[in-house]
Here is the input.
Amino acid sequence: MSTKVNLETSTPKTKQSLKSSNIVSLLSNNIVWLLLILAILIMGIVNPIFFSPSILQNILVQTAVLGVLTAGLAHVLIIGEIDLSITGVLAFSAGIGTFLMNRGLNWFLAIIIIVLFGLLIGIINGILIAKFKAAALIETLAMGLILEGALMALTQGRSIINFPDAFTWIGKGSIFGIPVLPIPFLLVYLVIYFIWKKTIFGRSLFATGGNSTSAHVSGINVDRIKIYAFAVSGALAGFSGYLLSAYMGAVTMTFGSDLLMYTLAAAVIGGVSLSGGRGNISGVLGGVLLLTVIQIGLQVLGISSYFVTMAGGAMIFIAVMIDATKTRYLKY
Amino acid sequence: MLLKVSNVNKSFGSKIVLTDNNLEVGKSEIHALVGMNGAGKTTLVRIISGVIDDYEGDIIFEDKNINKLSVIERQNVGIYVVPQHAAVIPEFTVAENIILGTWPKDTLGMVDWKKIYENAEKVLHDYGLDFDPRMKVRDLSLVNQRKLNVVRALFSKAKLVILDEPTTALSSEERDSLFKFIEAQRQQGTSFILISHYLEEILRLCDTITVNRDGRSYTGYKKGEVDEATLSKLIVGESVKLLERSSEEKLKTKKVSLEVNGVSGKGMDNISFTLGRGEVLGVVGFPGSGAREICRALSGLNTISKGQITLNGREISIPKDPKTAVNQKIIYVSFDRHKEGVVQLLSIKENISMSILTSRLKKMFGFINKTKEIENANEYFKTLAVRASSINESLGNLSGGNQQKVVISKALSALPEVLILDEPTVGIDIKSREEILALIDHLTKERGLSVLYLTNDFNELLRISDRLLFFEDGKLIVDKVNDGLTAEDVMQIRDLKDLKEGVLN
Here is the structure.
């Protein structure tokens, strides 16, 4: 049995044909896009109306708010934290901006205030979590509740309406027949793509999320990166609040509150790891599109609205299980 | 024969990891499994323990084929692995850790605590250990935690215990005490597979040896058949030349680079010393002696409450965090690679760049200079001979030794004036270790790099160090030039107070 062998390094290095494993990883990294294509195909086969340009346009329009919101949240998920305040930020910053606008504030300044307010809340979250070591889950939950409550207090249960056209143009207007709303949405993704791939901040995000102690020892200012991540999340939540109020033309009492679970689900389906350090922005884009396609698809297919939530939940469930299986498979 | 591994093959995807591996372990035998990082030792252990269940070949335990058994079933027949990172629950007591999963119940179905402690006390006594079963495990020393792990395995009726690098981060005394314990258990009839990079301890302790190289096993070597040189040749596949820094270099007078003056802080009491330009200064001391504390304090990881630090004649601010230290060109390589060294999810290149993102790689508007990044990563990838397909490979795919090379590349990329190496060769095979030592030797001569070197491997320390600092109770007690010291000398100076005072004169 025992093989004593001479010392010559006789074993030739096995040439690795990386081809097949490359294809596997390519597929598994883009699983969300496969699912998206599959979903569109199935819906289109069942009801060809789904292939019409207007529906596809509609998908982009309806994804915009969820998309911008999720893009911000992804920064916080990448560093291994969580931000449950985003829907509160979205609601209250839109509320305060439009409230002031209806009392005479210039529409442009109102937009600036909406985004800055979100940024401010993000920075506060970041400081409390990075410097004061507050638990993100609870801190942002509390912050979200405070802001949702603040919107109720502000509106006294009534909706804020009657916005100037300049304010709502981004949500309702169109250029050459193409709706405007998808443009800021896609621009946000383009900018984030470059930030994640090419900048020091982007790299630091992934280093911090992958192993914050290692990043710290290597001279990365981990606390500051965390604050920045929350700041981006807050600012984009504010911006998506503006987009939603412009699209709806009103800020209601429960404005945007149903988005929280969908935005988390979209990020995870898009391949962002809840434990941090893993994710790419094209996956997030696929995730938000997939969720919207399913929602619209169920409506187009005429499925009773009583089933829509359940079907959405089931779809998220399946996607997450596929993701988990993939992680398991690629472990070695 | 207790365990027989027969013609085991394993590949991950298209990558072949093990080819026709064989080994046999008899009853009451200590079997060594040695090899370079990435030679397939860990994979083989995972196959034996059942963590990996899709392999070719047969695992035979007590003349029964156990291929079909799961991890838990294999534990039930008597195969236990004690992992490198001691698998204990720190917040539980010693007793709870021993009986974990098999809580005795009283008549009401509640956990019977009295019985737990009685049982545990008896078990500890039987295995010749004398610590209190009511103690929390986090208060145990590292060596006692490792022993506790073995006890837990034996308590669950293990017949074969696999120890993965059990002596990592232990002092030589602790190592001896662990070996005595293992030897005693072997005489009671337990068999062991010991994975280690310390050939000296292997040759002392083990009855039979298997060498893994490039996924193949060379097995059947018996105690006394091989010596250290032959064994290291077997492991590496070629003879390894041990680096020995020339005594000329060691004794040369050097210009002062770093001057530490009256530094105090947690675990440090008024420490003063100088480090010459191009000098390698060895640091010796037990855990808590101030040796590691001063290394970490200079890197901004421990707080300094008082004192001055001068670098190249200019006083520098006390490093309050690693970023400040890195900016001042003082770079630390941690003893804990997993926790403080690497980011597994990032690529080799991205890991190497971490220390220089805001300095050498900075471009306008916060962009990363990609050309420079690739150039820099490739340079160290080649210099340190990292074994990987390219700098874009994910770090998590690399073996421990190669990950450590990446950590050192990251430190060197920042072009340090002072490099603080804390156990830089832990868990690294001989060849990589000598490559790293040679590089340090080279950089001190060519670039005037100054090095603080902390390790418990005194032979290694003496080969590279020009001078040694001994620490005790937070104080620097001996500062001695390495003029032909031996490992015994080092231990004596460290242990004997009288002698210390004699040397200090």
Q: What stands out?
A: The domain at 49-329 of chain A is CATH 1.10.3470 (ABC transporter involved in vitamin B12 uptake, BtuC).
